[in-house]
Amino acid sequence: HDAMTAATQPLALLLLLLMLQFTCSFYLPGVAPTDYSKGEEMRVKVEALTSVKTQLPYEYYVLPFCHQGIDLNVQEALNLGEVLRGSRIYNTPYTFAMGSDQTCKILCRSVYDEEEIAAFSLMAEEDYRANLLLDNLPVAMSIFHDTEDGQTIKAYETGYPLGHVDRPTDADGAPLPLDPAVPAPVFLFNHLRFTVLYNADSAREGMRVVGFEVEPFSVKHSHVNEVDWDECVGRTAGAGGKCALQTCTPQSSVSLSSPPLQIDVVGGDEKRRKAKETEVIWTYDVVFRPSPIRWSTRWDTYLQSADDAQVHWFSILNSFMIVLFLSGIVAMIMVRTLRRDFQRYEQQDLMEEGQEETGWKLVHGDVFRPPALSGWLAVLVGTGVQLAVSMGFLMLFACAGFLSPANRGALMQAALFLFVFMGIFGGYTSARLFRMFKGTRWRSNAVWTAMLFPGISFAIFFPLNLIIWGQKSSGAVPFGTLFALLCMWLGISVPLVLAGAFFGFRKQPIEPPTRINQIPRNVPPQPWFVNTWLNIIVGGVLPFGAVFVEVFYVLSSIWLHQIYYLFGFLILVLAILLLTCAEITIVTCYFQLCCEDYHWWWRAYATSGSCSVYLFLHAVYYAYSKLQMARAVAGVLYVGYMALVSLAFFLVTGAVGFLACFWFVRTIYAAIKID
User: Fold this and answer.
1) Strand order of the sheet with strand 262-266?
2) What span, in angstroms and rounded, lies between the C-alpha atoms of 207 and 215?
3) Torsion of CA 256, 259, 263, 266, to 10 degrees
4) pLDDT at residue 590 in the model
5) Angstrom distance (rounded) from CA 45 to CA 159
6) DSSP per residue over 563-580, as a string?
């Protein structure tokens, strides 16, 4: 019975972790659906203009879109995460009546000068997309994927492009970079066809929105007679004999054969159109369709937007099996080798005194000697523990459904608050190590623990924020928000770190299991395979190799504006990463001690932390192969933010590797008999 229980425990753990993946709910607990009655007015909101080519969000009304009847000074209240993401939510003139189809409804008529047309043209060239919202659902364009078994899967691409640049394409239809010598016409999407999917259940009253789709068109509208456009705003074209358009009527909407609206030409010797003014008539259709999709699963189609889902699943499983296999081999070797060492040392103890000790037992009087810059090592380990605990709670909250896509900005906001409140763990760990290293100025140590990572983050973030501010982007964090972050740091995080350090320093110091010699012994010449830099370089390969597939999807989520939701798999991958960091550090430390080199403290931290270098290099390769940055500022932002992420990765993995190695060294030296 005991053997069967032991055999089934790993399988049960694996099944539990996989169940976390499927039990992740997509709604914040307590959020209730909105039931609309027939004909009830529905208001469309807009979040921001975004582009994967610039990574600079802009407010929707930075371009002269229709805003009749909209107070541009009124914004929707945002949480901290939304502000940091650059979201600015406004109302729009788009209004629907639940269940009532509308065709060729006039939004407004605008006449733009050359400067305004140039702004639209630049946004279209940089692939900016508008992100409208209806009932907290982002608007999306439908895309269809054919699976290997012949099925067609519907997915969403959030937002819609502002316009289209008729770029040249290669033989496969992929767009080529613009040639300055070849003119490319720019078309503006001024007609939108919305499709609202709703679910009507006979068991309840009202209808619920379960989908919000859009199809953009470029149409050069024309009208017969002079029209009072102020009177036509919000009316259907041709209704009551007024506001008639030749390009669409209440009976026939626009189509792909309608003449497109060209507003500009990019490249070539041809100059911008000489017309001082350009007329644009903005129109839209709305169609309501019943859908079997339930409100609780309406985000599923959005979450299917990532390509190569099967490759993702199988790659993660493959990485897990490989690392599990390697972990078993490493554990078996370590157990057998250590057992042989213990047996040899016990035999030596029974033999006559005076026989010279060999191997890792020989350095028992120096292995616990405090390293150089021991205070900084305690600071780095404490900061890494604070980040690791914050990350663990963040993943648990994400799998519990508290950080769903429906709650925009919740992930970033939760990460900030968790890091601030987990300062007590960082201060406690740093103080315990600092006292073990015979340090006395624990307040100074605690202050450095509280200031290190936030200080470096602020030093990187503030110049980047000034650059974004110079681009007049909504992604620039307001100074009021910066002051709030500063108050969180100095008013909550620093006191909690000091409190943790106070309790950690008051506890009895960690005593080494062996006495430390007064005179350090000389380290003999080391063989090539325990070279410090070689161990550090090789030590980061295996941990990063276990997670690089998931890193690709996380980077796509951040920089390609995709929705990431596989938090169950992310927990599994992070567990594999930390386990691998611990094992590779223990193995390299064991070989180092066997070669009578007792300077293991900093090397243990750097060995596992070196995988952050591979993370940064992979991020650079990802930017080169996947991202098409239209502005130099986008590259600066990418390098700055990925350097900050790599620093956090270094602190977490380094702390985990160090603590695992510290436990291992204490365990083996406590198990042998020292005279």
Assistant:
1) 163-165, 184-188, 262-266
2) 23
3) 70
4) 86
5) 12
6) PP--HHHHHHHHHHHHHH
How far is C-alpha 245 from the geometric centre of its chain's CA atoms? Answer: 46
Among 451, 367, 430, which residue's Cα sits nearest to residue 659?
Answer: 430
Structure tokens at 427: 């201060």
Beta strands in 218-317 (DSSP E): 262-266, 277-290
For residues 93 and 110, is the Cβ–Cβ distance under 8 A? no
Q: Measure the CA dihedral 317/323/325/326, to 10°.
A: 160
Distance CA 47, CA 159 (A): 10
Helix axes 541-559, 532-539, angle to 10 degrees: 50
Q: Which two tokens stand for residue 458?
A: 């602020």
Per-residue three-class SS string for 368-411: CCCCCCHHHHHHHHHHHHHHHHHHHHHHHHHHCCCCCCCCCCHH
Question: What distance in Å separates the CA atoms of residue 308 and residue 567, rounded to the nearest whole number?
Answer: 17
pLDDT at 15: 38
Record the tokens describing residue 183, joined without a space. 């003119």
| DSSP-assigned states of every residue in 328-344 | HHHHHHHHHHHHHHHHH
Query: What is d(CA 509, CA 501) in angstroms, rounded to the nearest whole number?
Result: 13
The answer to whether the beta carbons of residues 374 and 104 sit under 8 Å apart is no
User: Which of 264, 58, 86 is closest to 165 using CA atoms?
Assistant: 264
Task: Confirm if 168 and 150 have CB atoms less than 8 A apart.
Answer: no
Q: 124 and 188 in contact (C-beta within 8 Å)?
A: yes
Residue with tokens 């920089």: 559
> Is there a contact between 622 and 394 (Cβ–Cβ < 8 Å)?
no
- Helix and strand numbers (H, E) in the chain are 18, 14
Q: Give the pLDDT means over successive 10-residue stretches in the chain (675 positions).
A: 40 41 42 86 92 91 89 83 87 92 89 90 91 92 76 83 81 62 82 93 84 93 76 79 81 83 69 64 93 88 63 66 71 72 63 54 81 91 95 89 80 92 93 89 91 93 93 89 91 93 88 80 79 87 83 85 77 85 88 85 92 94 88 92 95 94 87 67
Structure tokens that stand for 585 in this block = 């550090």
φ and ψ at residue 448, rounded to 5 degrees? -65, -35
* CA pair distance 665, 371, nearest whole angstrom: 15
- Cα 428 to chain centroid distance, Å, stands at 29
Using CB atoms within 10 Å of the CB of residue 640, give its burial: 0 to 12 exposed, 13 to 18 middle, 19+ buried: middle
Q: Where are the beta strands (DSSP E) in 65-151?
A: 90-97, 102-113, 129-134, 137-138, 140-146
